């Protein structure tokens, strides 16, 4: 998931810069243009998900049945795995924040023009 976030962030920024510099789109309309360009792709992939084949008898036989948990069972499951889930959530949050800060300020971080010679 982290790779897809980094890839999609880079593609979105590249498309935004392309719209601003090549297509000369106003800064206020650039996000709308990129969203409008991405919307058909979203619709296409959503439609393709509906076209996936139904599981065969062999698929069903090879897997165990998934039961729906009620509120008490969900709470028990969360409490059972809470320490690990909280560590994963915190680590993912910190890594996401770190990546966003790096992407937003990388030009300032590696700008050596202000370093005295």
Walk me through the structure:
74% of the residues lie in helices and 0% in strands. The chain is flat.
Mean model confidence by pLDDT: 89
Oligomer state of the chains in this structure? single chain
Radius of gyration: 22 Å
Q: Which class do the helix and strand fractions yield?
A: mainly alpha
Inertia-based shape: flat
- Secondary structure: number of strands: 0
Largest sheet: none
Question: Count of helices?
Answer: 4
Amino-to-carboxy terminus distance: 42 Å
Instruction: Catalogue the unreliable spans.
Output: none
Question: What fraction of residues sit in β-strands?
Answer: under 5%
What letter string, H or E per element, gives the SSE order?
A: HHHH
Helix content: over 70%
Per-chain topology:
Blueprint: H1 2-21, H2 30-50, H3 57-62, H4 71-109
Supply database-style keywords:
4 helices, single chain, mainly alpha
Brief write-up:
The chain is an all-alpha fold and 117 residues long.
